[in-house]
Structure formats: structure tokens, C-alpha cells
Amino acid sequence: MNSVHLLPNEFERRLEPHEIGQELTSVQRLQVSDKTALKTEQEELVVIIIDGSITFSSSEASGNATYRDMIYVPRNSQIEVGPSDGASATIVCFWAPCDRDTSFKVVAFSEVDSDPNRHHTYGDAANGSRREVWDFIDEPFDSQRMLCGQALGELGGWTAWPPHEHGEQREETYVYFGLDGSFGVQLVYEGGDGMDSPHSVSLVREGHLVSVPGGYHPSVGSPAGGLSYVYFMASRTKEDRKFMDLTIQPEYGVKFD
To answer: Over the stretch 135-183, which tens digit does the pLDDT of each residue have?
Structure first.
């Protein structure tokens, strides 16, 4: 396993899976100041706006998308993105292999935020693990491998708690955004003696990326702000996208809630 920690400028070109220690996930961070075409071949794509607003155009639809919205693009497609009202924006793109037809969809943050089936609160404020999770690409979504959403912890709070892992089922990648000068710490390790030699202990700031091919992966924000990030998961088995198919680290809990 090879967990990778990248600064924002280190994935401004498309990185292929092996470049971030993964098997399925490709990723790119783009500063959108001019019109740019994004293509898929035998893969599906999700575009997440992590700063500003964009315009988009494809054979399926055109329009505007703003901060925290996502756009899902099927295989063998192209989408053109550009700045909205001349102002630069920042997007993150994830690709995963796909060999069947799916449906183009724009998923607004406001839509997910108001849906109790996709906007969840997990954890407990008493132990510092309370956080919000917004599931944009969830199990019912028409995707072959992807699960994707956003999470926000409380000030100084833990996310992805209790520690859990799902390396046999799917790989995961985090991109941190909306930190407003704060920072967090992302851990990736195996259980037992593996905690004495973790794969990764990363101080993460605005725009950073950490890949999680496998292993337990809790994270914590500083008291200066709640840790906020995009999570992207690619299932190793096609069509097997069960969000709660995971293993809790036995020392710290029996239930992910």
C-alpha cells in the first residue's frame, strides 16, 4: 500500500492511479480561468467545484454550477467548463473505469443538503466526533464504481470516526477545501502494531490531497476550524457500492455512527 500526500500544485495535471498509490482512481485539480474540455473514454467522471462558480456545456445539458456542486459525466463523453462571470474557479476531477452507459447529472449542494436521505449527521459532540456528511453519489445513483460526497467536522473535531477501513472493497481519496486558514491531520495506518509505523501522518491544508488505498484513516481538524473535504471512493468490484461495507478498528468501536 502506498498512501500519497500531495500539495495543490502537485496534481494540476491529470494523475493516473499509480501516481497516487491507487489502482482505479485518476485525479486532477484545475484552476478554471478559460474554457477547458474534459473527456472520458471507458471511464466515468465527477467534477466538484471547491471554489467559485463555473459554466458547463455537454451534449446532455448546459448551465452553471457553483461552490460545492458536482457534475457527473458518463463514459465516452465530453464536458466543457469555463469561468462564470469572468471570475476564476477551482474544480477537482476524479475518473474511474466504467464499461457501461450511465446518465449525465448535475448534483447541486442545495439539493443534497435538503435531503435527509443524503445529508447525515454522524458521531457524538461529547467525544469530539460529530460531523456532517453529504452523499452526492450514493448507492442508488447511476454509477458503476463511484461513491462521492463531502464531510465537515466541528472545530477541533474528528471525522471518519471510529477508525475504519475498506481496502478490499474500495479505495478512497480525500481533497481538503474550505479550511479558511485552518488545518487538519490525516492518518493512514494498519491496526495493531501497524499503528507504530503508520503509512501516512499528513498535515493537510487548503487544496491538499491524501490517497487511501487501504488501512484505517481517521482525521482531525484544528481548533481553528472544522476539517472539510471531498471524499471519493472507487469500488474494486463493479456495481458493488455499499457505503457501510467496512471494518471498524476493534479498539475504538463496533459501529460507525
So the answer is: 999 999 999 999 999 999 999 999 999 999 999 999 999 999 999 999 9
First and final C-alpha spacing in the chain: 27
Cα 67 from Cα 178, distance rounded (Å):
10
Identity of the amino acid at 211: S
For cell 486558514, name the residue.
Answer: 181
Asked if 92 and 38 count as a contact pair (C-beta separation under 8 A), the reply is no
Contact between residue 194 and residue 162 where contact means Cβ atoms under 8 Å apart: no
Which residue has 466515468 as its cell numbers?
A: 44
Query: DSSP letter at 68?
Result: T
Q: Which three cell numbers stand for residue 60?
A: 446532455
User: Running DSSP on this structure, what letter comes out for residue 98?
Assistant: -
Answer yes or no: pTM beyond 0.70.
Answer: yes
Q: Helices (DSSP H) in the chain: which residue ranges?
A: 109-113
Residue 88 to residue 147: CA distance in whole angstroms: 27
Cα(225)–Cα(246) distance, integer angstroms: 28
